User: Fold this.
Amino acid sequence: MELNLLIKLYFLLIMADFVTGVIAAGYEGRLKSKTMSKGLWTTFAELVLLMVLYAGFSLVPNLSDVGNFFVMGMVVKELISINENLARANVKLPQWSKDWLEIYDKENDKIKPR
Assistant:
């Protein structure tokens, strides 16, 4: 897939993630501007990183496959986040999706901070 198309898809998914995140936080009664600001700054940092890497990838054409892989990873991350937001907002999801999120949460709980 072309890198420009992947980046456009990523931007669309960022918007969808933001909207579903606001809906999920509102549904849970946890909608706060501080939390939203933190998420927006994180997204901004990811976008800055993406633009720096995009400039590098456009200067060195042989790295376009690496760029595609990197942006695909970011697209997958956004899709997972949207899925989590929908689950938090109590939207009916396919069973496999719920099972995957449950497995992810259990594995995440096993990791203890140092």
Q: What stands out?
A: The helical segments are 3-28, 33-59, 64-88, 95-110. Residues 33-59 form the longest helix (27 residues). The chain has four helices and no strands. The mean pLDDT is 85.
